[in-house]
Amino acid sequence: MKTNAWKIVMPFAQASALTAAVVATGVQATELTGFAMLPANTFAVGPTSGQFAGAGAGGNSLPLVDRQPVQGFSAVLRGPTGNSFYVMTDNGFGAKTNSADTLLRLYAMRPDFKTWNGRSVVGSGKVSPAEFETGKKLMAFTSKSFISLNDPDHKIGFDIVAGMANYPNGANDIPVDSSIQANRLLTGSDLDIEAVRKDKNGNLWFGEEFGPFLVKTDHKGKVLRSEIATPNILPPGSSATGPDVMSPQNPYLGAGIPNLGTSRGFEGMAINPAGDKLYTLLEDTVTGDPVKTLRINEFDIDTESYTGNNWLYQLEAEGTNIGDMTAINDHQFIVIERNGGTATNGTPFKKLYLADMASVANGGLVKKTELVDLMNIPDPHDLNRDGSTTFTFPFVTIEDVLILNPTTLLVMNDNNYPGTGGRDSNSDNNEFIKIKLDHPLDFRGRRQH
Fold this sequence. Notes:
Elements: H1 12-25, E1 30-38, E2 43-45, E3 56-57, E4 60-61, E5 67-69, E6 73-78, E7 85-89, E8 105-111, E9 115-116, E10 121-122, E11 127-129, E12 146-148, H2 178-183, E13 193-198, E14 204-208, E15 214-217, E16 230-231, E17 244-245, E18 266-271, E19 277-282, E20 293-300, E21 305-314, E22 321-327, E23 332-338, E24 350-356, E25 367-373, E26 377-378, E27 390-391, E28 397-405, E29 408-414, E30 430-437
Antiparallel strand pairs: 1-30, 2-5, 3-4, 6-7, 7-8, 8-11, 8-12, 9-10, 13-14, 14-15, 16-17, 18-19, 19-20, 20-21, 22-23, 23-24, 24-25, 26-27, 28-29, 29-30
């Protein structure tokens, strides 16, 4: 559907002309201004992984002996330096039943973007590991490059893999790696983390999909309290039942009936500029809610509870899922919306929308405006060297967006290692792209987290 023109805040003398231009054109003119790539076959130190995920794909075999895949990028934060980022991997190989040997981590990385300097393309286009604390470039993804989520104080309320003798996947006959047990490390069978934000106190909040739950850790990934369930706050017109929103993988479901699809929890989660409110966005419609609407709920950091304020995000006719949500200011957000199409299968629908809550009543639909079509980005200098001056981003899952400044966005894909088909039959790489907007966002955030 067509949506309203989005709000621009600029010096008053320029505002009228630019507002008129945006109203007239709708979608912003954009340009690819940076490109970097991390190869699919990128690994970090760690216990053997992929023992329950089949034989592999794209010519890449599993398991990965004494290695963890650096893949499945599902969230991104600013790093310790201006040219570094913290990138969060998801649960591993896509399911609770095949990822018990995959660790939940946040990596530090430094992309050397290919850019146009006015005369030629410069930059290597490579992504390097970095020290987690300093952002200093490293030669490999060593233990200095990441933090792993861990629960040494037994805060998680259900049994985790670290407390088991054998992995709960497969035939349940492979012993859990001793490093997982000794450090109470969390795995992709415990939680499916898909979002992370840093609050005003420096703590990390992870949104995950198995519950769906919110999980609070310190800045080094240590769990600080029990996981927080998602209350079933009914929007107008909903017939959803049950006290909580629960997926089929929720460890407390028992004989109950889930009201949310498998792995359809908190794919998106934003934090306000003050760092004291989270906005959680589900990936799928709660059973009984209006068709193709996704719930957004507000969570208060100080009280560690949901406030009851809530909104709905309406998917487009072509859209099937969201990929991420990040705050522009107190009421505007960027949301990635997509379908499952790729360059090799179906018709890809991959777009960024501006979602505005201003003047929207509790339970109402946020106002949407198309911001960027990720399948049609001008690339006049062919930064990715594919021979085209139009850049497309046709991956199945695109799950990372970060505002670098009012006119520049960072967008990244989740490559679902060793999955294939995003661009070709090979295992998809991890691509980092910078997109320049012709008109500035009303970006009120501090250094974005």
